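Let us begin with a simple case.
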Amino acid sequence: MSLPRRLAIIDVESTGAHPVRDRITEIAILRIEDGEVVARWESLVAPGQSIPPLIEQVTGISDAMVADAPPFAAVADTVAALLEGCVFVAHSARFDFGFIKNAFTRIGREFAAPVLCTVKLSRALFPEHHRHGLDALIERHGLVCAARHRAMGDVEVLWQFVHQVEAAFAPEVLARAAERAMKAPVLPPGLPEGMLEAVPDVPGLYLFHAAAEAPADGRRDPPLFVGRAQSLRARVREHFAPHARKGRDAELAARVKRVEWIETAGELDTSLQELALLRDFRPPYNRPQEPADGAFALRLLANRRRAPMHESVPIAGSDPAAWEGLYGVFRNRREADNLLRELAMLYGLCLRRLGLEGGSGPCAAHGARRCAGVCAGRESIAEHDARLAAALAGVGVKPWPWAGAVRVTEHHAASGRTRHHVFDRWCYLGSVADEAAAVALAASAPRSFDVDILRILTRWLAVPAHLQQVAPFPAGAA
């Protein structure tokens, strides 16, 4: 025995990668019995929704082509008959199986079949190779594809691959590989078939939802959790691995009924979109976000005799170009007090004068010889405050390195996504898809300071290689 006697090699094209939200646009099936093709069938399918331009570009299937095609309900009997009694064979098979199963579910019918994934079969037979996508198989094995990304074209490639491996490997080796390729993954109880396989292997954000269906009006419903990853597919699967199902993680995995994802152009794009989602929805399984609208800086009050000798100046939403005599950027009072305590230790400053200790007379630090003695008359207020001003001089927002606004361009080849992020004086002006729109943003968008944006951008710019992606706007353009 090698491969199963009855195989149904199948491929579906669709309006997108989501097995619940998206719909089938084309199906092709080769039914194989004892190594012979006994049935060959293909059909366009009316999806009942528009085909996105990017999907049309990849598959070549347009809205006009499927306008007169039958809906899935009209071809369901044919599909069921062709698959009856066969092993369901596809590349990344759980993806195609998910689309077929969900299509049957929507018309009130059950569907089940043993599944053999040719990606897993290739990995089992050719472990020395790292790439097992269909394009990699075509290149490596010299397969011929008459119509890549069309259902029958891809099915014919898989049939050639099956032929080759049957000829190249001993039956017992092939049988063991097929057994591994047919091993069903342990699926989260609430997720529909094919959902995990649909998650792309690109950077981006993923959202876990408790509701199985997205809102009908197209709104984004509040997620349970928002995560980020360099490989969405690998990270999402980690959440549902048996070893990860403990405590709060297990509770989250049990509640997830739907996974959504957002492909991003790069690390900065991911961070900016993640911040927006966390602020908009405050997902219960994410760490709580501390509000940024209370951000403030310190301003020293010259010749003030009573403590404290500084005031808090709100800076959230302000234009940094208008800042004068401000020190530090603090999200809350705790951050400011911690800095002042540290400076007091380093420079012999008075906790009472800094407003960190009440009472009168010499402060506690003076008795321990950590305060130079402004509270005990051993130095003047002017001397103390001048020392504080010098200590604070290096604290706060660094000077903006450029003369004006800049554009940061990120592009990810696998997803094809390009984003231009526009910043000026540490303020985020927006992100757009083309350079002309970026120029318009730089010229018209107001500067509005956000402490979280400052920290995101500061961390990103700390990587020297990232500076190559920064392009200042020409004088007069912004």
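The second case is a distinct protein. As before, the sequence precedes its structure tokens.
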Amino acid sequence: MTNEFEADVLICGAGAAGLTLAIDLARRGVSFRLIEKTREPFPGSRGKGIQPRTQEIFEDIGILDKIVAAGGVYPSMREYRDDGSFVERDFGGRVQATPAEPYHIPLMIPQFLTEQIMRDRLAELGGRVEFGSELTGFEHDGDGVTARISGSGGAETVRVRHLIGADGGRSFVRHALGIAFPGKTLGVRAIVADVGLTGLSRDVWWQFNTGDMQRMVAICPLMGTDLFQIQAPVSVDGDPDLSANGLEKLIVERTGRNEVKVHDVSWASAYAMNARLADRYRVDRVFLMGDAAHIHPPTGGQGLNTSVQDAYNLGWKLAAVLCGAGDKLLDTYEAERRPVAEEVLGLSSRLLEAGKNGEIRRGREVQQLDIGYPQSPLALRAASRDRGLQAGDRAPDAPIKGAGGQPSRLFGLFIGPHWTLLVNGEWSVASRPGLHIHRLGQRGDVLDAFGHLRAAYGLEADECVLIRPDGYVGAILAFDAEGVAQLEAYLERVGLPSREAV
């Protein structure tokens, strides 16, 4: 019998969100096509901040070390006053890593380098981006999606099971679905440009006239490159001059530093700041993620990070449903991720207003480590558990030892597309594909040699914790007859039935 589907998933848009989803699907063996209407990769630095939670995701998908090697930490900020004096401070503070939170400061790497590393990882997994291929139309029904694509080889029609709109703030997919994108224009227009310049050192992030929306300019050395990124608010009217001469003139006018010379412009853009959130993330077999679902000002460095986490949330759910889990599992994508985007919009807008007054400070709230899904239908908790870690929380890391005596980390056990069950008791649950089971204690394969696992998870004797593929706690249960029955039912619901149940 001929399979009517060319692929399981068609991803429209090969930015950070589309690439994350493609990598996750590729490592799960899910067939997909990843199309991008531009003929070349995105050339700019725009989403340059990688927050700690996204670093955890990048570790899981196998690119964190390359990201760190290609970028660097943010330099300190040097803010100049009108009288020529300045204050210098660390970007976001220098908090210390902990056993539960191994990544604690944002990394800086231009978006074009991040996406290149992601494309290389995708190639390792057998995938690729189809540049110059544009989605021109689609229809969806109860069984799948029929999509029309225009590319260098002409027009084609493909049949897929699911379509993903990761195609940016002007999303064709969102418009075609008729999904409203309410919000507001924030009355701020800005430029961002990657340039080669001389006259400023690369050891600080230069800030001038902070809080003055007519004269502000920030000039940041882009780690991993020889470029600087210029950011500055501009008039909402007219077209700013984004040439090397125009940008040099802007810098001199706003800083009085005639020694600054802009030699070339690698990439530049002018944009109006908006805060908008799609009414829906899903219509039957079509989904929105990333900027197609939410846009907000760049204050706080949340955009790329939120988009990556959208994809990381959706990927394992698509794979599970394609392997037999109930379709309702896909409803949890919007239920979990849309409230997060709503919070991010509020945070970014508040930081923008603070920046207008020169009071912007980035604290823990931008790190995204406290994001969780406690109200999710996938958060199963024992009625008696009213302390510490809860279902829906981010699963903490902890240094451990294996029974063979070698040091390891919980995150090392979590790496990969599987679920993880940590058992602190003697009861057993049937083994099944897609579930890694580890038993704690002296007779187990995982030793809490340093006490950090107990401190982070608070597991009592005869308790277990189930960790989702995206690093969140799915369930914390008593590991007794009732708890095992609840666990078995939960695993079957998310597409992990025991062999006996198949």
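Residues 331-356 form the longest helix (26 residues). The mean pLDDT is 92.
Keep these points in mind for the review questions at the end of the chapter.
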